[in-house]
């Protein structure tokens, strides 16, 4: 390795380190100042809580055997909503791709539903489906499904026209065209759909839990607000942050795994 | 011997605001074993003609008849390699789609890969190859299905001038060696003369046949050498004069 190359690599490492350090520094400063401000009563810890209070609440939840129950409930709901949206969304996107006329007919309705604030449908959903998990999943699907359909469908539409031509000249069957060209071409968009889908599912599930439920992180937050236990609310938010990070990172890992198995062009 | 007879082909495209006549009453033959060049300015209907020859589009009038069953090999300016498949899987794509991955055919692909110096790259992915190598993989993919007619749609126009000339030499040698009937569509007159046995010049839209020329350069020499002949320049100037240049 030439000295220039070494210098170049060292420079990159230095920058990476700086970024990591700054990130940790910001986080730690935030937590410490929050704690100090609460402890010296500069902010009202009853309203703003404090890191130590949040940890205490977490430990209490754990001791009461409640912590993992709530996390488990929300996670399962998110995974169900996510998978359902992915499967249904993918199939509908495929249907739209194969029969563009259907897409054209449904287009205005999709746009309308997509721009409607889904939370407005909450009360109706509860009346129709009852105050149970079904409502929560349904609410999440309302929120994540259309984005999934649109993203995957756009990916399919972006398939290189020359490659479609090549497949046709080579006498490819419809099935081969879809499985060997259209779907692999849409890989990047399918991954983006996964990323959007997982965060939308979490939003949908929490919104659903706000409307109707007896357990889950959304319930924890709502309950905390009702009894004015703001530490419980903060604790719920903290768990949500962690959950969304874990979900998102899992998709990222999947993305990297897929990228390794199927190399994308440089441009 | 005539392999394909194109008679009275016409094609009009319709848009909400106008009608565009792309091809107007084309008549010509494609002879067995020849390389037929088709030149014309952009928008003269060259691509439409290819789409009709490959059956991707139907002509409004006229017919295309052939003296025997034909297998079309199609190569375009975009190599259209699938980035998620390695060189080998790209090369056998046509065999897979046509469901003819016989031992014989796979051995033939191995031979082609070896012959064109790509065998040791067969596990590489297209993005790690040079433009010239990619185009050679595209050529092997095209030849793998053992076509008896090759349709080349501006196959070198995306390459830089150096690889363009080397690749066209390679392709020429391969075509002549295998004796495959070839239609070469190009807007590059020099390229067309250096490769073709016969050249059809199309008028600007609506595409009609302006002239047909026999290219009387010794068939044995390769395109880069053919470019040096006196006849080459002469024909170049004649065809240049024929073409309706878009100013």
Characterization of this structure:
The complex is a heterodimer of chains A (267) and B (247). Chain A has 267 residues and is mainly alpha-helical. Chain A has two domains: 1-43; 50-261, MetI-like (MetI-like fold), CATH 1.10.3720.10. Chain A contains twelve helices and no strands. Chain A has helices at 3-39, 45-48, 51-63, 67-98, 100-115, 122-129, 133-157, 161-169, 174-185, 187-211, 217-226, 230-261. Chain B has helices at 46-53, 87-91, 93-97, 103-115, 131-144, 161-178, 189-195, 223-226, 230-242; strands at 2-14, 19-31, 35-39, 61-66, 72-76, 149-153, 181-186, 198-202, 209-214. Chain B is of the alpha/beta class and 247 residues long. In chain B, helix 5 (131-144) packs parallel to helix 6 and helix 7 (189-195) crosses helix 9 (230-242). The radius of gyration of chain B is 18 Å and the shape is globular. The mean pLDDT of chain B is 86. Chain B is 35% helix and 26% strand. Chains A and B meet through helix 8 and helix 9 of A and strand 5 and helix 3 of B.
What is the compact description of this entry?
Chain A has two domains: about 1-45; about 50-260, MetI-like fold (Orthogonal Bundle), CATH 1.10.3720.10.
Please describe the structure with a list of short key phrases separated by commas or semicolons.
heterodimer, A: 267 residues, mainly alpha, MetI-like fold, 2 domains, 12 helices, B: 247 residues, alpha/beta, Rossmann fold, 6-stranded mixed β-sheet, 3-stranded antiparallel β-sheet, globular
Low-confidence stretches of chain B: none
**CATH-defined topology of the largest domain in chain A:** MetI-like fold
| Rg of Cα set of chain B | 18 Å
Could you tell me the mean pLDDT of chain A?
A: 90
Order of helices and strands of chain A: HHHHHHHHHHHH
CATH superfamily of the largest domain in chain A: MetI-like
- The CATH class of the largest domain in chain A is identified as Mainly Alpha
